[in-house]
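Q: Flagellar biosynthesis protein FlhF, please. Structure only.
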Amino acid sequence: MNIRKFTGATSRDALRLVREALGADAVVLSNRTLDDGSVEIVALADSDLAAVAPPAAARPRTIAPRGTDSVPAAAVPGIVSRPSAALARPAVNPY
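A: Structure for Flagellar biosynthesis protein FlhF:
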């Protein structure tokens, strides 16, 4: 893992230094303006990113509901079993 700091008079200058040292695929970790007005960029090479990033979390498994345990839509408040009927009536009383 090769995390490095680069300082330039402007952010453009600092980014140019990053690209020259770490390549076009470098990852910028942070940037800030220093007291003297120059810009500091902390970056690392894209190839080193795997060492810093945590491993991807396992995708949670979903279990399909059983046919006998399912609740009919009419029994759950807020669920409309006939959407066309709900759209036919106005949402707000005009009077």
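A: Brief note, in case it's useful. Helices lie at 11-22, 49-52, 83-88.
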